[in-house]
Design a protein that fits this description.
The chain is α+β, with helices and mostly antiparallel strands. The protein is 46% helix and 16% strand. The protein is built from 14 helices and 16 strands. The strands form 4 sheets. An 8-stranded antiparallel beta sheet has the order 3-4-5-13-9-16-7-6, with helices on one face. Strands 8-14-11-12 form a 4-stranded antiparallel beta sheet, covered by helices on one side. A two-stranded antiparallel ribbon has the order 1-2. α7 runs antiparallel to α8, α8 runs antiparallel to α10 and α11 runs antiparallel to α12. The longest helix is centred in the first third of the chain and has 45 residues.
């Protein structure tokens, strides 16, 4: 099939008008046939409601009159069956033409090129964005305008280009262009006020304007509730609650409450700990979150850092840290650390991944995430992402920032060098526990070194009860 470049050629762009006219024709025919069905249904509805309104409120008294009971029986026997058959009939002809129309050559790249061209036009000629959206180009008013959905697409494109300030301007204009009569269409296209405010909130958050983003997120939830979009409202509530609790955690506003802390010598992980118990501060009971103090020596810390330095790599393009895997046989120190992890957790490391050492620079963070992935029922062996527990060793002190955060549990704390944080990622039934959401706050001053061990759910049948 010949490749067409719509966004870069007015001749090719003109062919889109023909396609749109064709689709309009199919939609008109489809809508007319649907309207015929609606009109027929309304005639039935009106006739039945009229008959019922003339009758007695008590059903028994109502059907005592044979001039009422017989027509009722006839309607239930003949009319309803015909009506249901009519309702099940599809408007096939125009619908098939509509859904079978191939538009696969109109790609996301074409939209991106078109958006770039329009914004280039605005920049070169110094056009006011709001006037441009309302059809004014170089002091001349045209009988055309950009819709709220058009402006939202431009704002989204700019946000993808990391041009947050310009994106916010177009997203605000999108709200100005919003028309209430378009609500059914916007609900279908997911271009309603709630989605615009959500995009605004995300854009402002990426620009680190937290107060403004919080205001727009609240507006998004409010409009989602008004539009009866309960799925979006619930999604926003759940995720935004976690995000803003996390921000408070990072600012030190949600330190673990003294009334819930339990400090003790930990001996349960293995028989060896009865001879050499570990100092453990239990931060949460369900799911288990414990902070073990002085569990990795300075020599072991330096060994992990030295072994990882030559192996460092960025795992993600936008990563704010470098990472390296250190195998268990890399040194005697690493082997001893593995044994200590088994003692601390009571779990087997036989089928787990190697220790991963990470180094966070200024602003480095791990955003809110789960360390587990829900396994499918009756599938063995368990997937590698089915992680029973996580152990995080702290190999350095951070001057400012770098707190550990548990957004769902509602607390954060500043770890110290030589300690290890242990938490369980699954509940007693073997399901991924949403309460184990975890994050590392941005490093404000200094550098943070951590060593992470994900403990796989595979191979734990001797150590942990089977899933039920």
């Amino acid at each position: 099939m010949e490749t067409k470049y719509y966004a870069t050629s007015t001749r090719e762009m003109a062919s889109l008008v023909k396609i749109e006219d064709e689709l309009i024709g199919y939609m008109r025919q489809y809508a007319e046939e649907l309207q015929l069905k609606i009109n027929t249904m309304r005639v039935f509805q009106k006739e039945w409601m009229t008959r019922r309104a003339l009758g007695h409120a008590d059903p028994t008294t109502y059907v005592a009159n044979p001039l009422i009971s017989f027509p009722l029986m006839r309607r239930m026997y003949f009319d309803v069956s015909k009506l249901l058959e009519f309702a099940r009939q599809e408007v096939k002809g125009p619908l098939q033409k509509l859904v079978n129309r191939d538009i696969s050559d109109i790609t996301a790249l074409e939209l991106k090129v078109a958006a770039t061209g329009l914004l280039r036009f605005q920049g070169v000629y110094g056009l006011n964005a709001s006037e441009m959206a309302n059809g004014k180009l170089s002091d001349k008013q045209y009988n055309s305008r950009l819709s709220a959905a058009d402006c939202l697409a431009l704002g989204t494109h700019l946000e993808d280009q990391k041009k947050g300030k310009q994106a916010c301007k177009w997203l605000r204009i999108s709200l100005e262009q919003y028309e209430d009569q378009m609500d059914p269409v916007n609900r279908l296209l997911q271009t309603g006020r709630s989605q615009i405010y959500e995009k605004l909130g995300l854009t402002l958050l990426s620009m680190h304007d937290l107060p403004a983003s919080q205001t727009d997120f609240k507006n998004s939830i409010e409009w989602a509730s008004k539009d009866d979009n309960t799925n979006l409202a619930n999604h926003l509530n759940d995720n935004l609650d976690h995000m803003f609790v996390h921000l408070d955690n990072c600012r030190g506003k949600n330190l673990p409450r003294n009334s819930t802390l339990r400090c003790r010598y930990f001996t349960e992980g293995s028989p060896f700990l009865r001879l050499a118990p570990l100092k453990m501060e239990q931060l949460n009971f369900e799911p288990f979150v414990g902070l073990f103090h002085d569990v990795i020596t300075s020599v072991e810390q330096e060994d992990l850092i030295n072994l990882s330095t030559s192996r460092f790599e960025h795992r993600k393009v936008d990563s704010s840290s470098v990472e390296a895997e250190v195998p268990v046989n890399a040194s005697d120190h690493v082997a001893r650390i593995h044994q200590r992890i088994e003692d601390m957790t009571g779990l087997s490391l036989g089928e787990s991944n190697p220790i991963t050492v990470s180094n966070f620079g200024i602003g480095g963070q791990d955003f809110i995430h789960l360390d587990c992935e829900q396994p499918k029922e009756f599938v063995e062996p368990l997937i590698p992402e089915y992680r029973t527990a996580t152990v995080l060793f702290y190999l350095s002190d951070v001057q400012m920032g770098g707190l550990a955060s548990f957004p769902d549990l509602g607390f954060g704390f500043k770890p110290s060098r030589g300690s290890a944080l242990v938490w369980h990622n699954i509940d007693n039934a073997g399901n991924c526990d949403i309460r184990s959401l975890q994050a590392t706050c941005p490093v404000l001053l200094g550098t943070q070194w951590v060593a992470r061990k994900w403990i796989s759910g595979s191979g734990q049948w001797r150590r942990k009860p089977c899933r039920k």
